[in-house]
Amino acid sequence: MTIVLSAQNLRKSYAGQAVVDGVSITLNRGECYGLLGPNGAGKTTTLRLLLGLIEPDDGNLKLLGLAVPRHAREARLRVGVVPQVDNLDPDFTVAENLLVYGRYFGISDAAIEARLPDLLEFANLTHKRDAKVPTLSGGMKRRLTLARALVNDPDIVFLDEPTTGLDPQARHLIWQRLRELTARGKTLLLTTHFMEEAERLCHRLAILDHGRMVAEDSPRELIAQHIEPQVIEVFGEHAAAWARSHASRFAQRFEISGESAFCYVQEAQPLLAELHRQGELRYLHRPANLEDVFLKLTGREMRE
Known about the structure:
The structure is a single chain. The chain is α/β, with parallel strands linked by helices. It has 3 domains: about 140 residues, P-loop containing nucleotide triphosphate hydrolases (Rossmann fold, 3-Layer(aba) Sandwich), CATH 3.40.50.300; about 70 residues, no CATH class; about 60 residues, Alpha-Beta Plaits, CATH 3.30.70. Helix content is about 35%, strand content about 30%. The strands form 3 sheets. Strands 6-7-8-3-9-10 form a 6-stranded mixed beta sheet, sandwiched between helices. Strands 2-1-4-5 form a 4-stranded antiparallel beta sheet. Helix 3 crosses helix 4. The two termini are about 40 Å apart.
């Protein structure tokens, strides 16, 4: 495999508080790698370090074979970035946004014009080529931001929460396009709060908490390593009281959150039979997923 990014023991502190605390990441060509974590876990600072926008207090980083931050400017010529918030120019049309952005990379107008049909088709915006940005829907703006990140034909694309605020149809279209990019050999580094998105797209991912990497592997392996295979959610007015009295008889582990109890089991039938006998309790039986792993490793409390 070709390594396109290698970060070893990155550290960054502000006012004596460690924000990134010994993070090491290696990305291979053609993979989608996810960075997950609650608010304040250090994801954004890690991205800024990897892009060479800020200098680490310690650690070593190579992006596309170039030492960063020393050669960050040269490395970023081969990088695409999809920021968390769309920063398109509202005074320009769809095509003009792509054209002007390409000039920042020193690409000639003729070369950008030659690429426009493919970029617009990729973003499903061919019919909106001459439309001004304020007339676009949220999904269209997000797809245009993704197309803009590809103007320089990058080797690696950084995507910061690329589908936040999108409806299901727009989200699924973005997912499809991102899978197409990895099929072409592009490398993606993705941050997201959507566990389903990470589970669908990421070949490997890391979970960050308080600036440290607490787990790293494929979504399937993380689920197998950290969570019992089946989950039964019991919810309603009496669910918490029932769980405190009875759940430990049937579940290997259980958690109470509000009026819901999450029971993690190897074998579901004994607990399902007990809940059926109870009658008044409502419940949902499902396989374990990445969200269960995330909540186990980072906790259920709110982060501001």
